[in-house]
Structure prediction request, 438 residues.
Amino acid sequence: MNITMVGTGYVGLVSGAGLADFGMQVICVDKDTDRIERLNRGEIPFYEPGLEELVTKNVRNGRLSFTTDLRMAVERSLVIFIAVGTPDNSQGQPDLSQVEEVAKRLAEIIDDYKVLVVKSTVPVGTNRWVKEVLQANMKKDVKIDVVSNPEFLREGSAIEDFMRPDRVVLGSDSQRALAIVKDVYRALYLIESPFVLTNLETAELIKYASNSFLATKISFINEVANICEEVGADVHHVARAMGLDGRIGPKFLHPGPGYGGSCFHKDTLAFAHLGRSLERPVRIVEAVIQVNRDQRKRMITKIEDALGPLEGKIVGILGLTFKPNTSDVRESPALDIAQTLLNKGATIKAYDPAGMDEFKKVVRDEKVSYCNSAYEVAKGADALVFLTEWNEFRNLDLKKLKKNLSTPVILDLRNIYEPERMAELGFKYSGVGRGTNI
Ligand code: UDX
Prediction:
């Protein structure tokens, strides 16, 4: 079956390559000529473990191709996925201009039955709106069905999440369209992935409810961690004991500087906005957003408690990306924390295995220098701050770090190390929700 995938970002490229691997004939379309040329040269425009191999393999076996020619792709396809970006605009609502642009262009091209699958994360009601845009702009009176198929891919593990999803959510008013798109995913029958078949609005809401709940778990454990610090409890033990309750589950109970990434940020804002617009405020999600903002400020307080006034201090930062195994710094806690440190007069030395180029595009300040290792960052620094739990930070030579540091101060904002051991080594050490000797 021929499929068009419109959009070659994180979601579109992973999904397109994944469907090709499932045996579909996939044509990925993007209006960005440079990006398409790079993809046709085998270059992947962002860091995602395993994606280059998956793309190369499926291009080589002829199941995956890239073009800017939407008309050519659509004429050959029954199913057209829309996986373009829906970034939040200045009011914290998803910007649907790219979705609308694609829908209008499709209306000019389509001249026989097609199934349009919206994979982009869109506010509840958008799929129905897309169908209206199509019908209002169609050049011919042909039937179109729309299916909402939200994605649940995590950056850094997107291919595994695509190949072995916890569930596939398909929403539509058309049983015919649901059957067609279910058949697209038939490779997943073999591993018995559950399918949730529902209507358009329910499928759209499942995405927001799922991401907002995951963000809720994170803000919740961050508040628990803050209590732990006051009462001398260990948040790791609290989280472990909580997670042993099957109704809670062990995942997403790691405290830290607050969640980052574009998805949680924009999806929680969108869900909160939806509630307000319906005069049914989703107050829990509004609190989750505020707690996340406050957690970053709390990290600055931790650093000031350890170093005193930041004017003139040299702060080493390890980890700039919003999570490990990605180059993505969108909404990363490191952005807020670094900017605040600079505003308070500190100088920054930073290292990240994959995110420095992206970080430099956002934080343009000559008082930030970039290093090639954790040890180089530590040289002459008054403190070392762990902001992203990259594996290479997990077994550093702590004695060497201590020798390099001007003062043996470590703010371990991802709880990579054990407080007792750090105290024994002579560090002034503070984690999140765990022992501190500062
Ligand atoms: C998330 C959802 O997990 C995914 O299902 C959805 O499709 C897209 O958004 P992603 O943003 O890629 O995926 O990363 P995720 O692994 O969810 O982490 C998001 C942020 O939460 C990161 O900054 C991470 O450091 C933080 N986090 C995660 C915590 O602080 N504590 C945790 O326990 C888990």
Q: What stands out?
A: The pocket of uridine-5'-diphosphate-xylopyranose is lined by residues 151-155, 211, 214, 218, 252-254, 256, 259-261, 263-264, 322-323 (CB under 6 Å).
